[in-house]
Specification:
Blueprint (H helix, E strand, L loop, with lengths): L7 H16 L1 H9 L8 H8 L5 H14 L8
């Protein structure tokens, strides 16, 4: 008896469903994200984003966000 292989997109869909059922949505997303390559040039974007800020400015902004409850260590 010969079994026809399923298309890869069907296998992926089934695997994600099993993960979701077994470990939940958040952990499924975290698991899948470790395999994504990403895009862009983080170094260039970071330099543009923080060009006018010192390290003390960045730290102060993080602390302010924590105080307001808009950021937590679990967001990392």
């Amino acid at each position: 008896m010969r079994i026809q292989p399923q298309p890869l997109h069907e296998i992926t869909k089934q695997a994600i469903e099993v993960l979701y059922q077994q470990i939940g949505l958040v952990n499924t997303v975290r698991f899948i994200n470790q395999f994504t390559i990403g895009y862009g040039n983080y170094t260039e974007e970071r330099e543009q984003l923080f060009a006018s800020m010192t390290l003390d400015d960045v730290i102060a902004e993080i602390e302010e966000m924590r105080d307001k409850g808009t950021f937590s260590s679990q967001d990392i």
